[in-house]
Design goal:
By secondary structure, this protein is an alpha/beta fold. The protein has helices at 3-15, 30-40, 46-64, 83-94, 108-121, 134-141, 162-174, 192-198, 205-221, 282-291, and strands spanning 72-77, 99-105, 130-131, 148-152, 181-187, 230-237, 242-249, 253-257, 262-266, 271-278, 294-301, 307-314. A hairpin with a 4-residue loop joins β8 and β9. α2 (30-40) packs antiparallel against α9 and α3 (46-64) packs parallel to α4 (83-94).
C-alpha cells in the first residue's frame, strides 16, 4: 500500500473516532522535519541536548558496560540522522571492536542518506541497513547468532500509551536472545514547569509543527482546513506523566477532503489529539523492564538528571 493511501485511511479512522486524533507519525513530512529541527534548537526543549550530553560525556561508560567478547551487531530502531549514535559508534571503532551497525527504517531514502553520512565521517564503519517496518524485520533477527545491542533512543518510547509501550518493547524482546542488550532513551519526570515550557515554546514553533499537519492534509488529501480556525494547545499531567498535545477548533466548521470525497464536522472548542509525550519515573522504568523480560543493567543520565538512557539485558 502507498504512503498516501495509509495517510488517508489513518486520517479517516482518526476523524471518525469519538476523540478525534491524528497519528503523530504524520508530523514528519519535509516541512515537519525542518520545523522539528528548529524545535530541537529551542532553549526550552531540553530533551535533545540532554541525551546528546549523555552520549558525549558518558559514551565511553556505555561502551564499558557492554559484555560482548566476540563480534556483535548494533541494531538501531528509528535511527533518524544518526547524530547521537555516531558518538557511540566512534568510541567502538576507536577501541577496534568487531561489530556491524544495522540501522532500521521504513524509508530506503532515509537509510541511504544515513549510510552516506555515516561513511563520510566513519569510513571504517561496517554498516548494513534494514529497510522495512519493525513487525517484519525484528522476528528475522532472532535467528542470527551474533550478540546484539538494540538502540531505541530519543524518548520515542514516550509516544506510546503504556499498554502500547509494553507491547512494543515485548516485540523487541521476542526478537532477542538471552544476553542481548537494549539501550532505551526515556525522558524523566521533573519540575512540571520545565516540561510545560518544552512543549509550549514562546516562539510558537511547536504550534507551527502541529498546524503543519493541517497544511499537509490540505496538500496531500485535498482538504480545505482554514489554519486560522485552529489553535495549538498542550497540557502536562504530572501525576500520570503525560504531555498531551491538541489542535483546538475555534469555531463550528465542516472540512471537506477531496481524496475521500467526505466531510468532517468540527465543533467549536473540539479537540484533535496530535501527540502523547510520556515522562517516566524510575519505578516505571524498572517495572517496564521487568514486565517485558529484562533487567536494568545500568542507567546513564545527564548532569541535571532530566533524561536517561537505560541499558537493559534480556533475561
Amino acid at each position: 500500500m502507498s504512503d498516501q493511501f495509509n495517510f488517508k485511511v489513518d486520517i479517516e479512522r482518526g476523524f471518525e473516532s469519538p476523540q478525534k486524533f491524528i497519528p503523530s507519525k504524520y508530523f514528519y513530512d519535509a516541512a515537519g522535519d525542518r520545523i522539528f529541527q528548529q524545535i530541537m534548537e529551542l532553549p526550552e526543549y531540553y530533551l535533545t541536548r540532554s541525551e546528546a550530553e549523555i552520549f558525549e560525556k558518558k559514551g565511553g561508560s556505555i561502551v564499558d558496560a557492554l559484555p560482548f567478547k566476540e563480534a556483535f551487531e548494533v541494531v538501531e530502531l528509528g535511527a533518524g540522522d544518526g547524530s547521537k549514535t555516531k558518538t557511540l559508534l566512534q568510541e567502538m571503532l576507536r577501541r577496534e571492536m568487531d561489530f556491524v551497525y544495522r540501522p532500521m527504517d521504513i524509508s530506503r531514502d532515509v537509510l541511504g542518506q544515513l549510510k552516506a553520512h555515516m561513511l563520510e565521517d566513519l569510513p571504517t564503519l561496517s554498516i548494513d541497513v534494514l529497510a522495512g517496518d519493525y513487525f517484519h524485520i525484528l522476528p528475522s533477527l532472532k535467528v542470527d547468532p551474533h550478540p546484539k545491542l538494540f538502540l531505541f533512543l530519543g524518548s520515542n518510547i514516550g509516544n506510546f500509551q503504556p499498554a502500547e509501550a509494553e507491547a512494543f518493547i515485548q516485540m523487541i524482546a521476542n526478537s532477542m536472545n538471552s544476553g542481548d542488550l537494549l539501550l532505551v532513551g526515556m525522558d524523566l519526570q521533573k519540575n512540571p514547569a520545565l516540561i510545560e515550557q518544552a512543549y509550549n515554546d514562546k516562539a510558537g514553533v511547536t504550534a507551527d509543527f502541529n498546524l503543519n499537519l493541517l497544511k499537509r492534509m490540505n496538500r496531500e488529501l485535498g482538504a480545505n482546513f482554514n489554519l486560522d480556525a485552529f489553535e495549538f494547545y498542550s497540557h502536562y499531567d504530572p501525576v500520570r506523566g503525560f504531555v498531551n498535545s491538541y489542535l483546538v477548533s475555534l469555531e463550528k466548521q465542516i472540512v471537506y477532503f477531496s481524496a475521500m470525497d467526505k466531510s468532517f464536522l468540527f465543533r467549536k472548542n473540539e479537540l484533535i489529539h496530535t501527540e502523547l509525550s510520556r515522562k517516566f519515573s524510575g519505578e516505571q522504568i524498572d517495572r517496564l523492564a521487568f514486565r517485558t523480560g529484562f533487567y536494568v543493567r545500568k542507567e546513564f543520565k545527564d548532569e541535571k538528571e532530566y533524561f536517561v538512557d537505560s541499558l537493559w539485558e534480556k533475561v
